[in-house]
Task: structure prediction
Amino acid sequence: MRTTIILGSLLAAHAAGAAGVDVIEEQGIARMTCTYTVECLDEEACTFAQFGHDMDLPRTLPGDAVLQLGTGPAEGRAAEHNGLLVITAADGLASYMVSTTLDGLARLSVHIADPLTVVTYHGQCEVTE
Result:
């Protein structure tokens, strides 16, 4: 089942200063920018990080999404689960999962196959267009 989301009902809280419904006039995608300040590698202690990426999101959830990473695009899907915006994607290097709350709190987990490693980033995401 598909749920039509006017970017305002799920994502407006991400947009700074949004007083009402933030509707993107153009059909297709919205862009979010995420920045992370904490990196946690497997079972090691977390450390400071300066990492970020953009995400191209569909107007209708669930739908196709793209993480724009420094290593290239990772294609996947975006959906709403329990009030979170959740994006899962993969490329030739890793699998990715981004979860973000309505107020922009975000977690990115990167699952690398060889060697088996999981890196988790803590930060914020916001609608940028």
Observations:
- Strands lie at 3-4, 29-41, 47-58, 60-61, 63-69, 72-81, 84-90, 94-100, 105-112, 117-127.
- The radius of gyration is 15 Å.
